[in-house]
Amino acid sequence: MKAIGIPAGSSGHDAAALADLELAAPVARGQDILVSVQAVSVNPIDIKMRGARPQADGRPRILGWDAAGIVIDTGPEVTLFAPGDRVYYAGSITRTGSNAELHLADQRLVARMPASLDFAQAAALPVASLAAWEALFERMHISTTGSDAGKTLLVIGGAGGVGSMAIQLASIVGRLRVIATASRPASQAWCSELGAELIIDHRTDLVPQLAGKDIPGVDYILCLSDTDRYFSTMARLIKPHGHICALVESASPLPMNELRGKSASFSWEGMFTRSLHATPDMIEQHRILERVAALVDAGRLRSTTQVCLDGMTADNLRKAHALVEDGGVIGKVVLARQACASCSTTQILEN
């Protein structure tokens, strides 16, 4: 099968290392489904994993953790899917990635993709939707039934993939008042379009900006940017008994005592925790993606595909990595065997 990856023994520090490869086709066993991949999207985790050490066994490294495609075979333990199903999912960082013609994924991490979307639009959703859902509703325990309606959420880094889904999920499912940070007119407009009531600029101090809007504090904060840089600011802004959740690992120990006086909570969100540790509740990611698909098909959530490159080739993947690595892309960058009509490489916007 055709795949795109880093050849055996090569360093992936530069996107130029990504190459078209020919590999043996995988075989579905156990709870795995075999997917004919039709579209993938690129996430910051792809950039991080690209720079990891070459595999000790000398195999090429295939990246990619967002995919949409068609089931063509199933392992003997599979009960949720059958050949012909159109699915979307975020795979496991412990396994070969989805930047390939064929890909194996555990059925517990997969769901049927929204019927109203094409593959390119669906491929943008899994990683970002799962990270946002888990952060909001599992880590910070925001109610999915409206019990926390009217409370405030600050999303630091609102225009990226996870931020774009968090704004939607928090406002639509959680019924929260969402404040998002964005620095450029295009990204500010994007956050507003997705449901943020107020946009502030993360390039300057957040505290006086909110104070100027008579908002001395917020109930929840989702930090999708530099955790070290924003921690003390978040400690000042969080209300007593509030909750902060961060996705980006810190470079040094965080000053947790700054939260003590407010009895505020802090959580990490790691979207790959369930698959990395094969937790007993891995099936929850299947269920979350099912709920997201239902919300999309009901017209309540939208895909965040903004840049779609036509053709799953090494050249296009190198371009996609460069865009994500450089920053400035609103929403998600997708590669598809057949590009969606609503997306264009001209839609490269600032965050």
TrEMBL record:
Keywords assigned = Cytoplasm, Metal-binding, NADP, Oxidoreductase, RNA-binding, Zinc
Q: Which Gene3D superfamilies match?
A: Medium-chain alcohol dehydrogenases, catalytic domain, NAD(P)-binding Rossmann-like Domain
* Domain annotation Enoyl reductase (ER): ranges: 12-335
Q: Per the record's keyword annotation, is Cytoplasm included, yes or no?
A: yes
Quote the PROSITE patterns the UniProt record gives: QOR_ZETA_CRYSTAL (PS01162)
Cellular component annotations (GO), alphabetically ordered: cytoplasm
Q: What is its main location?
A: cytoplasm
Task: Say yes or no: keyword NADP present.
Answer: yes
Localization: Cytoplasm
GO MF annotations for this entry?
oxidoreductase activity; RNA binding; zinc ion binding
Q: Which InterPro entries match?
A: ADH-like_N, ADH_Zn_typ-1, ER, GroES-like_sf, NAD(P)-bd_dom_sf, Quin_OxRdtase/zeta-crystal_CS, Zinc-ADH_QOR/CCCR
* Quaternary structure and interacting proteins, as annotated: Homotetramer.
Q: Which family is annotated?
A: Belongs to the zinc-containing alcohol dehydrogenase family. Quinone oxidoreductase subfamily.
Instruction: Please report the name of this protein according to its UniProt entry.
Output: Zinc-type alcohol dehydrogenase-like protein
- Origin organism is Noviherbaspirillum saxi
What are the top taxonomic ranks of the organism? Bacteria, Pseudomonadati, Pseudomonadota, Betaproteobacteria, Burkholderiales
